[in-house]
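In the design runs reported in the main text, the only information available to the sequence generator was the tokenized backbone. The following block is the verbatim input for one such run; it is reproduced so that readers can re-run the procedure and compare outputs position by position.
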């Protein structure tokens, strides 16, 4: 999938998911996890598991403002899925 780029300078434009701004790489990771639905996607399917873990951590920091988070299983290569947060009243 081609990235949108600035017509003036050619720099990749940021993408938005659930109202948060993501880099193109983080947007691709997010989209792959979301596309899988309730079935977990393995980190190795997204790239280097350690790198993916770092990006997911950063995406979750950004998602703190929303009702969503990426849930991950522990351990290298653990699976990820997008889920709605449980709101405590």
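Verbatim output:
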């Amino acid at each position: 999938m081609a990235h949108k780029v600035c017509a003036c300078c050619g720099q990749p434009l940021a993408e938005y998911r659930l109202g948060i701004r993501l880099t193109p790489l983080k947007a691709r990771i997010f989209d792959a996890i979301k596309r899988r639905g309730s079935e977990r996607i393995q980190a190795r399917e997204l790239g280097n598991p350690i790198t993916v873990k770092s990006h997911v951590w950063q995406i979750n920091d950004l998602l703190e403002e929303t009702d969503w988070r990426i849930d991950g299983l522990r351990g290298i290569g653990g699976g990820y899925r997008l889920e709605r947060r449980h709101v405590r009243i």
